[in-house]
Every structure is written in C-alpha cells, then in structure tokens.
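ingest -> validate -> predict -> emit
validate: passed (alphabet ok, no gaps, 182 aa)
predict: started
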Amino acid sequence: MIYDIEKNEWVDPEISHQIPKWNHVGIICYSIPSWKYFIFGGSTGSFEEGGQRTTSQFSDECYVIDVEGIKDSNNWVHIKTDSNVIPKARENPAIFYDQNESRVIIHGGWNNNWLNDVWTLNVSTITGPPYAVFGITPKLGPLTGKTKVKITGDGFIESGIITVRFNYGKGHQEVAGTYVSE
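emit:
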C-alpha cells in the first residue's frame, strides 16, 4: 500500500515484475526527488499454491524502481554489485534502510535452513544526496562573474557555512552562499 498525500488516500498498486517472484522482501527508501522501492531475494519459477515447490528456485537478485514509476513494470532496474561476493540466494529475509549511510541491510532468511548472516548494499548512487537542485536563476551570466544566482531545490538545510561550486572547463570556482529558506 502507498499513501498518496495529494489525494489523501491509500492506493494499492498492482506492482508486477518482469520475473514473477514470491517470498521476497521490499523496502521504500527516501530519495530526492522521488522515493525508491528496492526488492531482494525470494523464489522464482512455477509454483501452484498448495503444490510442490520442486520447480522453484531461490533468488539472490536485487531490483529497484522509482516510486513515481511503480505502475509501469518496465521501469525495474537490476542492481549489480562491483563485488564478486554476493548474498546467498534466499527468501523471507529481513531488510532495513540506513539513511545516514545510504545502504540497504539484509539479514537472514530461508534457503533450506534459516540463515543468520548480515549483508549491506551501498545504494548512494541510486538514492543520491539528501538534496536536489531543480533550478538556477539566471541560467546565464556574463563571463566576468559577479552575478548573484538563486538556486532552488529540495532538501536544503541551514548549516552555517554554505559553499557553491561553479565548474567551467577543467577548473572550478567556489564562492560563499547564503541560505534563504527550504
């Protein structure tokens, strides 16, 4: 279920995935400008409810989808790690999101016996920083600089010292900024 703030109602979207699975876990993680929904593990294959599970197999795959695009099942992205070490395939693990470290934490689960291990997946490149820039006004200025700009976005906080970096070619210039509001 997803709560739609604008409509003030709960919505039960039909979330489908390219590969049918069951007994997987999912978690919605804060990200600007749109939250992300991660799923991990589970079982795949053909399985009739109440029947034998001889044709199913455990999954060790992780996928993510942008919550705003969740109704379009073609938007799932398979997450591949840089590491050769991946969690053992499983179903029914516990999953948590550590927002401070931008990582998904997976614990335990079932693979013909109960597992008691912990795995972390760095998702900072997916969830991004805790802020987003939506616009800069004016878009262009003189080459001499000295033009005040207004940066709008989301997730900005008053932190005391604000530094804005302008990149040009192979160089950059950092200038002091002033926090106006969220």
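The first strand starts at residue 2 and ends at 4.
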